Amino acid sequence: MHEYIGCIHIHSTDSDGSKPVPEIIKIGQEAGLDFLMLSDHMTLKSLKAGQEGWFGKTLVIIGYEINDLKNKNHYLAFNLEEVLPKEMSVAEYVREVKKRGGLGIIAHPDEVRNQLPQYPPYPWTAWEVSDFDGIEIWNQMSEWMEKLTKFNQLKMVLHPRKSLKGPTARILNIWDKEAQRRKVVGIGGVDAHAHPYTIGPFRLTIFPYLVQFKSIRTHVLLHEPLSKDFLTAKKQLFSAIKNCNIFISNYAWGDAKGFEFSIESGNERGAVGDEITIRDKAEIKTKTPGTAHIKLIHNGNLVKEILDAKLEYVTAEPGVYRVESYRNDRGWIFSNHIRLKK
Questions:
Q1: Cα dihedral sign for 94, 235, 242, 66?
Q2: Element (H or E) spanning 87, and its range?
């Protein structure tokens, strides 16, 4: 497998970010990222300006972030040529993204925060809609904001990555239930803005782009190397994401490159995102690039955990399996599901 590492959900000065797209691309290159997926609010300005493509060894994709008229139900939409009408309902824009061959991902779906009224949550409430491709199960800025209070602001700004512990149990539960019905990709989003923040006499930047690019990352697994032809590479990347051939990591707790998760049964072997058939029994194997608290999840339930660099498990139970791993009780690696069917 060929592994490509990047960051998803990035804002620029096209909306409410603090740097223009060319500068963000340079920072992504400095961080050693293979791809960047930008999604400014309700604009495709940089797409029209020709900022999508290969920039050296970094593949840059430009989509945008949709919201409803109440500024809720934010939706990351990629592979569109134009911004959809802002009057569309949630069901309409989710359906239209799919109709146009786009990639649609629910953004920061379970935001809950009430400590600072000036920073309201923007949750997803339209769970009756079913045409989305994925869920942003871990949003870096959302988690940080949910833990922010008037008493810990300076500490949180000075040490932003220390607050990151992982996706919430509530969103993992929703994701697992959806995945039992159909393929739904789970991604990690940096939600990068690099906002300036003032606390008394101090003026600091919350999560500079380089810091965010060294935290929550999305690892895409391909059978073939990314093409040097941009349109082909873009199609490869979207296909792998829609097929759930990805895992998420927090680089702050270690480089997760080389993580493995597979299931074998008979002569068939499936990796992250795949579907295979059980023949009597199936052998599940996972390996992390370093010791971790590894958890194996089946249909949303914990079936085995171990403190080691590998986990093995034998089962005859169909369903969807995924892996979580932690270091010092903080989330490190979260795989997408492998489906076992009879």
A1: negative
A2: none
What's the CA dihedral at 329, 180, 184, 138 to 10 degrees?
Answer: -20
| Residues 136/187, Cβ–Cβ less than 8 Å | yes
Contacts of 279 (CB under 8 A, 6+ apart): 265, 266, 268
CATH architecture, domain defined by 260-341 = Sandwich (2.60)
What are the domain boundaries of the chain?
2-253, 260-341
CATH topology of domain 2-253: TIM Barrel (3.20.20)
The one-letter code for the residue type at 205 is T
Quote the tokens at residue 201.
């006499």
In this prediction the pTM is 0.93
Tens-level pLDDT at each residue, the chain (342 residues)? 899 999 999 999 999 899 999 999 999 999 999 999 999 999 999 999 999 999 999 999 999 999 999 999 999 999 999 999 999 999 999 999 999 999 999 999 987 666 655 666 788 999 999 999 999 999 887 666 665 656 565 555 655 666 788 999 999 999 999 999 999 999 999 988 876 666 666 666 777 899 899 999 999 999 999 999 999 999 999 999 999 999 999 999 999 999 999 999 999 999 999 999 999 999 999 999 999 999 999 999 999 999 999 999 999 999 999 999 999 999 999 999 999 999
Q: Which helix (H) or strand (E) holds 86?
A: none
Which amino acid, one-letter code, is at 257? Answer: K
